[in-house]
Amino acid sequence: MGIFNKFSFIFLVLFLALSANAEVQRHRFVIQATKVKRLCKTHNTITVNGMFPGPTLEIKNGDTLEVQVVNKARYNVTIHWHGVRQMRTGWADGPEFVTQCPIRQGGSYTYRFTVQGQEGTLWWHAHSSWLRATVYGALIIRPREGKSYPFPKPKRETPILLGEWWDTNPIDVVREATRTGAAPNASDAYTINAQPGDLYKCSSKETTIAPIDSGETNLLRVINAALNQPLFFKVANHKLTVVGADASYTKPFTTSVLMLGPGQTTDVLIRGDQPPSRYYMAARAYQSAQNAPFDNTTTTAILEYKSASCAAKKCNAPTPIMPSLPAYNDTNTVTAFSQSFRSREKAEVPTDIDESLFFTIGLGLNNCPPNFRKRRCQGPNGTRFTASMNNNSFVLPRNFSLLQAHQQGIPGVFTTDFPANPPLKFDYTGNLSRSLFQPVPGTKLYKLKYGSRVQIVLQDTSIVTPENHPIHLHGYDFYIIAQGFGNFDSKKDTSKFNLVDPPMRNTVGVPVNGWAVIRFVADNPRVWIMHCHLDVHINWGLAMAFLVENGVGELQTIQPPPPDLPMC
Predict the structure, then answer these.
(1) Does the global pTM surpass 0.90?
(2) Which parts of 239-327 fold into alpha helices (H)?
(3) What domains are defined for the chain?
């Protein structure tokens, strides 16, 4: 029996043993327009089941989810289960034109997948245009039956979804930006559990309240569901103990402030150890790109001690205490926070590397095409914004999904020549020549053999402007073995590699003017997109995709496509 077949047999035995108490959970998501009033104005907002944010799904490690998505909205839609490994179930991953064609108006599709070996907080969101501005919700994975958290059981658990709100239709915002070539308008508010909070007009009656009682320890499941903005998060006068991130447990550490890039989740314990009162939870922007307009407002919720709550209508509740948040550009705080993460146990980090990749990431400016009028080139100096990895600006197909094209052998949809290294070496974080500002558009994938051990250096560049980019890889968790500033130096920086207990994540914040190194084993076959989770940058092409070959036998091969897979 070969090594892979032995591995597959052991995996099967373990799977059958662990599946004994697993359940199949079935849900129905109806995508529909719903009247939602925020900032004094009512909008026809796209929601799931009329709920904003959408329903929280609660499962156990080992459970199977079946979610029928019915599209009654006027836009095409897909749903992505952010951070779910999707072992052999790539058809259920959800990114539009990558693993499936969109669900058209009036159509439906059932996502079927098993969550295996993951515990903590993930989330789900639309992965089509900018619909995820309002189509999102929490996905909570509890330990298997009979198992417990590796920390004292909290008295209560509260999902905290940080969001971003436009006082207009977000689809119109991105369409206008695509038409003009300029950056899209910044949002008008941030939200906590879809409510802007006390600092915005017409909002204070609906401010989110998180209850706590003196002496109890609660679990906050914090999710950054904002479209385009990394966010600081703080609770006045309370320390937060980080115990997990992206559905992986961490060594506990205490902090007064969190920073989450879009896509990231952080589980924290909070103790009711302050005088009973009301305390603001607050979030506002971490803005690393210089001279770029951004939403500088602050969203709040209230941590309310039971004895300080107002059960009686005529009670005058005390004004909540406000935390002091870091400065918008406080990269030092972000660095200290991100470097505090460690895996709870010794990590199985791949060491003998088969694929050593180096990807530059950054923005760009395309010259105005000769057939375009000036109003279509409203980027800096009459250009159009773009973005790229290794000078390739990713273009999604329109008539097939990448996975479908590969499985059916359809030619001309993509190529497999994405470069392993930048086509041109340069001073990535220095002063750059304008000749580097125009990337090449294309649909290029990088092929990986099943089981190959992969290392990727993700290098920010100062093309147009350096920026902290939250890079998300679908279908995988990875270890972040090092982060730093400046240009990555393979001679000096390898000494910083943590191969003992690096954190496992699905989204990594690549430092502004810096780099991050990640490692993973390519054990999940077929097509997986890796992209910046600032949605404005996906639209501009800051993405690439891996094509992971099938291994040996059924357990190392993607399942066949489901019969109700949407057609283009």
Answers:
(1) yes
(2) none
(3) 21-149 (2.60.40.420), 151-341 (2.60.40.420), 355-556 (2.60.40.420)
